[in-house]
Amino acid sequence: MVFSSIPFLYYFLPAVIGVYFLVPRKLKNTVLLLFSLVFYGWGEPKLLALMVFTIVLFWGCGLAIGASGEQGRRKFWLLTSVVISVALLGLFKYADFFIGTFNSLTGLGVPMLRLALPVGISFYTFQCLSYTIDVYRGTVPPQRNILSFGAYVSMFPQLIAGPIVRYSDIARQLEDRSHSMEGFFGGLRRFLVGLGKKVILADNLALLVSQFRASEEKSVLFFWMYALAFTLNIYFDFSGYSDMAIGLGRIFGFRFPENFNYPYLSGSITEFWRRWHMTLGGWFRDYIYIPMGGNRVSKKRWVLNILTVWMLTGLWHGAAWNFVLWGLLFGLLLMVEKWIPKLKNLPGILRHIYVMLVVMLSFVLFNGESIAQAGADLAGLFGIGGVPLVSESALYYLKSCTVLFLVGIAGTTPAVKLAADKIDRTKAGAVLEPLTLLLLLLICTAYLVDGSFSPFLYFRF
Q1: Structural domain of residue 148, as residue ranges?
Q2: How far apart are the C-alpha atoms of 340 and 338, rounded to whole Å?
Q3: Are 315 and 438 contained in the same domain?
Q4: What is the residue-wise DSSP string for 103-131?
Q5: Are 236 and 205 in contact (CB under 8 A)?
Q6: How many domains does the chain have?
Q7: Which pLDDT value is given to residue 224?
Q8: How much of the chain is in helix, strand and coil states, percent to nearest 5?
Q9: Is residue 263's pLDDT more than 70?
């Protein structure tokens, strides 16, 4: 089940809200747990067993760490949770990648496992790991109520595509959180804005990406339109989902961390990664980079730390070599910015152009189905291989999508939000805002009823 679907919007969500607010406070986490399991098992019920196993494993390990006075035992239970969860993630997500790589290097024909990838496994595995690590560090006490812990792990708003919510972020909220009409309608507003980003912008941009792939009349212009379309598509797809998740959390009394802060306004790659998928960057910083020594080590060790973290960041996004290269590219660029501080002295417009050029090229690499295809797409951007500058199909789609591009570019800046906030402060705002949100819901519903469908890009991660 996805947020941008009729069953979720008009059946599942009203049902869970109705039951949640009818039951007493002590049963609210149980309601969230049960509905979240229904949500997760909607498309693939057999994967519920893995989810339940994950909940029991980390809950048990957390209790064991908290109950153990001996450091060796505490470390044993921590390593148990880490090894088993990483093994499961490796089995389901990376086994075929490593088998394929091994076959390519050796010429052997080891059969692929072809296991179905559990939706959101990368997200909830990282969330669970943050729990046992924080319990081991003494940052949070172990959760003794398995129903409350299960609600944290499986909570449907952020279960399958983030943001990555650490247990420490909502530990107190699981036990005691407040509900208000202001919070409810504020969450609903955030959810509908995210829904609009996804259905109206991301899905239409994804359609252009598909049309580019299917076209036999590619040109340099068309390649750059594709690069821009995908760069906007992945932003609105993922930030739209994050908005919906944060909004839903607010409806149920939770405050989830923000995940995006207008990353396309960045003036450096360092700043870009402080604004893009912030919960993932923070997770790798606190649980991988700093424990490895961070930058408080020798220069050679620091380089190793950076490259390791960014290789893992790339692999986290997908089991393919283009994702590894994508991660390493950003690792190298971050080191270059660190080594050449004078880059900060360049005019702001030049730094912004540099960032957006790098980001667009990196997303072309990111979206390639293989290294060969990504290489061909990058070559096409610069007319290598005899690619013509312009084609009729490119001009046609440029005329058709100019407004979509302009709206998309505007949507990556605070301009729309600032304008909306300004209107809200007027007398007409009290009427215009609910009418605008209702219109947004109706437009999204019309798109969904019409049969347009595009799954969230980050479901595969």
Answers
A1: 6-177
A2: 6
A3: yes
A4: HHHH---PPP--PPPPTTHHHHHHHHHHH
A5: yes
A6: 2
A7: 97
A8: 75, 0, 25
A9: yes
Q: Kindly list the catalytic residues.
A: 317
pLDDT (tens digit, 9 = 90+) per residue, 281-305?
999 999 999 999 988 999 999 999 9
Domain boundary among 177, 202, 226: 177
381 and 220 Cβ atoms separated by less than 8 Å: yes
Closest alpha carbon to 330 in 274, 265, 259? 274
* Residues contacting residue 411 through CB under 8 Å, at least 6 positions apart: 197, 201, 236
Q: Residue 156 corresponds to which amino acid?
A: F
Cα–Cα distance, 451 to 228 (Å, whole number): 25
Only one residue has tokens 């792939």, namely 213
Q: Do residues 187 and 135 both lie within one domain?
A: no
For the stretch 162-200, pLDDT in tens is 799 999 999 999 999 999 999 999 999 999 999 999 999
**Helices 181-196 & 220-251, crossing angle to 10 degrees?**
160
pLDDT confidence band for 1 (50 / 70 / 90): confident
Q: Closest by alpha carbon to 359, among 205, 211, 232, 206?
A: 232
Q: Which of 167, 456, 162 is nearest to 316 (CA)?
A: 162
Counts of helices then strands in the chain (DSSP H, E): 21, 0
Given pLDDT bands bounded at 50, 70 and 90, which one contains residue 68? confident
Q: Is the pTM of this model over 0.85?
A: yes
- Token pair belonging to 74: 């505490």
Task: Report yes or no: 12 and 1 within 8 Å, Cβ to Cβ.
Answer: yes
Question: From CA 247, how far away is CA 234, in angstroms rounded?
Answer: 20
Give the distance, in angstroms, between the CA of residue 127 and the centroid of all CA atoms in the same chain: 13
DSSP per position, 249-298: HHHTT--PPP--S-GGG-SSHHHHHHHSSHHHHHHHIIIIITTTTTTSS-
Q: Are 30 and 268 in contact (CB under 8 A)?
A: no
Q: Are residues 235 and 367 in the same domain?
A: yes
Domain match, 283 and 259 both: yes
Q: In 3D, which of 206, 142, 211, 205 has the Cα closest to residue 174?
A: 142
Residue 1 lies in a domain: no
Task: Mark whether 111 and 205 lie in a shared domain.
Answer: no
Exposure pattern of 322-348 as b/e (b: 16+ CB <10 Å)?
bbbbbbbbbbebbeeeeeeeebeeeee
Q: Domain for residue 313, yes or no?
A: yes
Q: What is the 3-state secondary structure (H, E, C) of 370-387?
A: CHHHHHHHHHHHCCCCCC
